[in-house]
Design goal:
The structure is a single chain. The chain is an alpha/beta fold. Strands 2-1-3-4-5 form a 5-stranded parallel sheet, with helices on both faces. A hairpin with a 2-residue loop joins strand 6 and strand 7. Helix 2 packs parallel to helix 3, helix 6 crosses helix 8 and helix 7 crosses helix 8. The chain is elongated, with a radius of gyration of 25 Å. Bound molecules: calcium ion. Calcium ion binds next to loops.
Length: 229
């Protein structure tokens, strides 16, 4: 059963919303104080949040912002003023929907159902999210083995990709060329530590704006390389 948290200080409205949602088979909790609502929203497992905008304690803007920073749970914002809705949209707080008071309870129920269904499709699709490393303008999608720099995809060979990923996964750690060679190339590989130098050079040409002043992989003279965090 889906659990919904309503944060609303006007109890009659909250109770009305609760009644209708319960009739539709949802489990509903009410918080009338914004700060307590935020705390519960962050700590407990809910499937959807309905947030009033003007609340004692923490307001709906702040709750939305903080919850969205931590969770992907659908958020419906409720407000008495149309202007506020425009404001929330403008702030890009990550709410999924907006309803202006007064609204019909059946409209609220319909929207709740739609958002829950969409969210369940999203999380229930069974595909785990790609493992991604993001550092400044660099994005490494480990699952898809793709590299993007400022949103633009760059082609990496297998070894270049492995070397970059290994360094990025261990930032601020200096590795000798010897260590890198052993890590990325298997023991039987023909080659030597000069191979590492060549690969670093190629990686830099793809990543760096100015290869003379590398932003990502630093050369530690006489020792090896380090990925700058
Ligand atoms: Ca209110």
């Amino acid at each position: 059963m889906s659990r919904i948290l309503i944060v609303e200080d006007e109890e009659s409205i909250a109770e009305l919303e609760k009644d209708y949602l319960e009739l539709s088979g949802f489990e509903v909790e009410i918080e009338t104080d914004g700060s307590r609502g935020l705390l519960r929203a962050l700590k407990e497992d809910f499937d959807l949040f309905i947030l009033d905008l003007m609340l004692p304690g923490t307001d709906g803007f702040e709750i939305c912002k903080q919850v969205r920073a931590m969770k992907n749970t659908p958020i419906l914002m409720v407000s008495a003023k149309k202007d506020d809705i425009d404001k929330i949209r403008g702030l890009g707080l990550g709410a999924d929907d907006y309803i202006t008071k007064p609204f019909s309870p059946s409209e609220l129920v319909a929207r709740v159902k739609a958002h829950l269904a969409r969210y369940e499709r999203l999380i229930g699709s069974g595909m785990p999210e790609n493992e991604i490393i993001e550092i400044r303008g660099l994005k490494i999608d480990k699952t898809a083995r793709r590299v993007y720099i400022n949103g633009e995809e760059k082609n990496f060979t297998t070894k270049e990709f492995d070397l970059l990923t290994f360094l990025a996964q261990n930032p601020n750690h200096v590795f000798t060329k010897d260590e890198l060679f052993r890590e990325i190339w298997d023991m039987e590989s023909v080659g030597d530590i000069a191979t590492v130098t060549v690969h670093i050079k190629k990686i830099r040409e793809k990543l760096e704006y100015n290869t003379a002043r590398p932003q990502y992989i630093e050369t530690i003279w006489g020792v090896g390389y380090r990925f700058k965090m």
